[in-house]
Design a protein that fits this description.
Number of strands: 28
CATH architecture of the largest domain: Beta Barrel
CATH superfamily of the largest domain: Acid Proteases
Structural class: mainly beta
Largest sheet: 7 strands, mixed
Radius of gyration: 20 Å
Distance between the termini: 33 Å
CATH topology of the largest domain: Cathepsin D, subunit A, domain 1
Helix content: 10-25%
Length: 383
């Protein structure tokens, strides 16, 4: 299963491409006001733009438009001349797809659609494709065209053109498609993912990318390709080996509160996933955490927590490769209007025994995905 929360390129030989992102008003509030939240969460259990320009010497910057607090969205373009799309940069999947003019689903009428007839570089195929996500699915056909991210243009890039898109998550989502950044073993057979094509075509100088997910809308968030901007984190990067090359999967030593292990006894496996908004884990361990913080279930499938608990509850410590990564109550509890607080932990049978470290965790820690050395780097993100 591919994880997503709701939830390339002109060659530059020594380039670091930075894609800024920002966040705006809560989608939960909008859906709750329209009495649509329960249906949305049932379709999408893993759910969770104004342009911002940040000049950095030696970094190529692409202004991005982001939307909502459920996911981070950036802009890419496909074709010649370019057709723009808002996509989730998702480390929990490997394929790129966008809606097409051949799509008849309601989701396609509310989003940008790709028109192959308007691109002089498009190469069509008759190969049907189907992609299944936790938050929905798409069917369509495979095509090839130039894909632009920032100043990079990836030529003859495989991507999906949707013909059907299921679920309200895709219909109401503030994004058009998804750009996967996991290992190519998860990609459609016989295709090369966007990041791997960047490397093969010599567009980036280092075989890595990185994310800074900001909680401050004015500063914005970024995804970087081919290098790391050290101004986005404090201290030194701590490296964690990838245990399985599919998802970005690592070993978590333990999860504890006040020095007591509350989950992940004797270690567990976790996926580091920018396409998932919450902290997700197996049923029993998550229920144990929810019980510890005195969270109460609601009819929407969410868990309410006393807002006073934000200042009273201790950090939850994720120990990874011997290093402690605190997640404060202000991160694992979110405050929505009007003064109602919810847990950012969720349980799902779909995850099996795996944990998913989504945006709740990644907002706290700048994250480097190093394909050259099959490792993940973590460091405290700047405020």
């Amino acid at each position: 299963m591919r994880w997503v929360g709701f939830l390339g390129l002109v060659a530059l030989s020594e380039c670091l491409v930075t894609i800024p992102l920002t966040k705006i008003k809560s989608m939960r509030e909008s859906l709750r006001e329209k009495d649509l939240l329960k249906d949305y969460l049932q379709q999408n259990p893993y759910s969770h733009a104004y342009k911002f320009f940040r000049k950095q010497q030696g970094v190529t910057i692409e202004p991005m438009r982001n939307y909502l607090d459920l996911y981070y969205v950036g802009t890419i373009s496909i074709g010649t001349p370019p057709q723009e799309f808002k996509v989730i940069f998702d480390t929990g999947s490997a394929d790129l797809w966008v809606p097409s003019i051949y799509c008849s689903s309601p989701a396609c009428f509310t989003h940008q659609t790709f028109n192959p007839g308007k691109s002089s570089t498009f190469q069509g195929t008759r190969r049907p494709i189907q992609l299944q996500y936790a938050s929905g699915s798409m069917t369509g056909v495979l095509g090839y065209d130039s894909v632009r991210i920032g100043d990079l243009v990836n030529k003859v890039q495989a991507f999906g053109l949707s013909q059907t898109e299921s679920s309200k998550s895709l219909e109401y989502g503030a994004f058009d498609g998804i750009l996967g950044l996991s290992y190519p073993t998860l990609a459609l057979q016989g295709t090369t993912p966007v990041f791997d094509n960047m490397w093969k075509q010599g567009l980036i100088s280092e075989k890595l990318f990185a994310f800074y997910l900001s909680t401050n809308t004015e500063k914005g968030s970024v995804v970087m390709f081919g290098g790391v901007d050290h101004s986005y984190y404090k201290g030194e990067l701590k490296w964690v080996p990838v245990t399985r090359q599919g998802y970005w999967q690592i070993t978590v030593d333990s999860i504890s509160m006040n020095g007591k292990v509350v989950a992940c006894h004797g270690s567990c496996q976790a996926i580091v996933d920018t396409g998932t908004s919450l902290l997700i884990g197996p049923n029993y361990p998550v229920f144990n955490i929810l019980k510890t913080i005195n969270a109460q279930a609601t009819s929407t499938g969410e868990y309410i927590v006393s807002c006073n608990a934000i200042s009273a509850l201790p950090d939850i410590i994720f120990t990874i490769n011997g290093v402690a990564y605190p997640v404060p109550a202000s991160a694992y509890i979110r405050k929505d209007w009007p003064d109602i607080c919810y847990s950012n932990f969720d349980n799902s049978s779909g995850s099996g025994s795996l944990w998913v470290l989504g945006d709740v965790f990644l907002r706290l820690y700048f994250t480097v995905f190093d394909r050259a050395n099959d490792r993940i780097g973590l460091a405290p993100a700047v405020a």
